[in-house]
Amino acid sequence: MKKLSVISIAVVFWCGIVPLHADAPPIFAYQLGVDPAALVRFQNPQTLTVDAANNVYVADTGNNRVLKLDAQGNFLAQWGSRGSANGQFIAPGGVAVNSSNSVYVADTFNNRIQQFDSSGNYLNQWGGFGFGNGSFRNPAAVAVDSSNNLYVVDAGNNLIQKFSSTGSFLMQWGTFFGLGDGQFAHPQGIAIGPGDNIYVADTLNNRIQKFDTQGNFLAKWGGFGLGSGQFATPNGVATDAGNHVYVADSGNNLIQVFDGGGNFLRQFGVAGSGDGQLENPTGAAVDGRNNLYVADNGNSRVEKFDLNGNFISQLGGIPPGNTRLANPNGIAVDSLNNAYAVDSGNNRIVKFDGSGVVVTQWGALGSGNGQFNGPQGAAVDGNDNVYVADTFNRRIQKFDSSGNYLIQWGSYGSGMGFFKTPNALAVDGANNLYVADSGNNLIQKFDGNGNFLLQWGGFGSGAGQFNSPSAVAVAAGNRVYVADTFNNRVQAFDLNGNYLAQWGGAGAGNGEFADPAGIAVDGQGHVYVIDSSNYRVQEFDGNGRYLTQWGGQGTGKGQFNDPTQAVVDSIGRLYVADYLNNRIQVFIPIPLLTIRPSGQGNLLLSWSASASGFVLQTATMPDATNWTKVSGNPQRIGTQFQATVSPATSTQFYRLYHP
Predict the structure, then answer these.
(1) 44: DSSP letter
(2) Between 20 and 30 A from 497 (CA), which of 59, 258, 424, 538?
(3) d(CA 108, CA 168)
């Protein structure tokens, strides 16, 4: 990236330029796909709970995380990512908070319970796949009683298991599968009301069962149907201080309300995506202010009601047709510096112009021409054709720059031209396409019509081997760089796949990586590596010499949550897909320099209007701490910013600075 490429300087009667920060990181410029007033975005939230301070914890199942919000839906904290390490999740299905503000998460497909403090710091875990006491088969929900005992809905074993607050097994009840009192058929929800009465959503039996804390059966109600008090796969249950029971009747798209004995009181909801409408509601919780929160799973949002079912607000939803992004995984740019975001969660491509305005979008969930299933990468060739890695359809699709479908190729398999997990793309100067197929641990090369040319790789850690390669980029000097993700390194090859070099290693130091997921190259041959699990971008020269880095975990400008792929456009802007923050961040090279005239004269500096936010400052020494702004500068003139000093003197230093 050209550090001073966006500045041209005209100066009369002076000399003595002193450039500073030659390897300073680029600065945040703007972001794509985010509504600044609502950064919270869910993907199929399953359940939720509320603590004593009325904060809401959401098991954001599709994003493999827990999200903590205040009662107005403002973001407070989040934790988790896909995986099996401490603090990671695979489709977390349940969340509960005890009186000490310990947060318990049913980590469903890891078959365990994880315990955190209220800020998301990992504390403890227990479980594992199995049929015995303390083992689980897809634990789906959790709840806490007044003594801080934890109850786990062990859906696959059709059991309720009871533990102490630290995970010691206490007891269980239920049977492998049954229709009788105290038996279950794939239960999915649990709530504990006043008097520690326990209510279980016995999902495939289409009923609610009530127990005491020793598992003694007390009552049941329901049955399959559409009428009041009947259910179609109830998934969630909640209680309030008045011992009312709220059932998320998923298949009927309703919330039904009962007294503690199962007598029907009222219901609300109707299928749809509008305010107060529901699409597969799966969880519910009541706060201390008598607000009811519903996990509206099919609409990927949380809705807030009063206890009579009057709609109050929604948290995290995206209206249909909105251009906000949901888990963008890839990004590409064309010759006009239009950006194409791979909006993975919405199964579409969103095209932005160079100023961040949406131009068009295309795609929907499916396997037809122009449809996608979890697309993860894109690239643009010299003719501005757009190639999309349609990952879970195991194919590549090609479009023109307006989104008109052209051709496709590929299907599931391990042979030449077949794919398991195609998730990143790059194009060389001859319009050949390189596909990073992480499932096959290969780079495959095709011409622009999809004809197979060659491949290289294979599973391993040796030179030229890969362990889940997640990104590929081609430099102008005909080098191919691959982010070899689980080997925590970058490998370099020529255009025929011959190994040239590598750098990296597991760690958090300069030049080390934790799951590098993206890679991009600028016009000077600098390589930008998206160091995903370190939540940062690292910059190197073309030979792997470390230059600089920036980032950190968070939602602020220049911070990341599971960043993935990246690309650099023709004027040096770096686009980073910030996956869990549901946005594309754009960074620009710092046009920062310090100068001192050798005599008296007029100073004029001009730079592109795309680099906004800079001021002209002056001081008596280059390392001064009291730089002051030169009044009246800069001014925008057409497509440029200009800063002038008249006269500029040799007793002062002048600099461009971005606050």
Answers:
(1) S
(2) 538
(3) 19
Helix (H, G, I), strand (E, B) or coil at 62: helix
Determine the Cα–Cα distance for residues 635 and 609; give it in Å rounded to an integer.
10
CA gap 558, 609 in Å, rounded? 20
Rounded-to-10 torsion of CA 160, 161, 165, 168: 180
What is the distance between the alpha carbons of residues 573 and 26, in angstroms, rounded to a whole number? 9
What are 219's two structure tokens? 């009552």
- Please name the residues in contact with 490: beta carbons below 8 A apart, sequence gap of 6 or more: 481, 482, 483, 484, 502, 503, 504, 513, 516, 519, 527, 529, 540, 544
Residue type, 478: N
Residue 641: helix, strand or coil by DSSP?
strand
Residues facing residue 11 across a β-bridge: 603
Reported as a single tens digit per residue, the pLDDT across 306-332 is 999 999 988 875 443 456 788 899 999
> How far is residue 591 from each of residues 250, 568, 656, measured CA to CA in Å?
55, 17, 7
Distance CA 90, CA 313 (A): 29
Residue 49: what residue type? Answer: T
Using CA atoms, how far residue 49 sits from 73, 394, 450, 585, in Å, is 13, 38, 49, 32
> How far, in Å, CA of 302 to CA of 6, rounded?
44
Location of structure tokens 């869910």: 42
Total residues found in the chain within this entry: 659
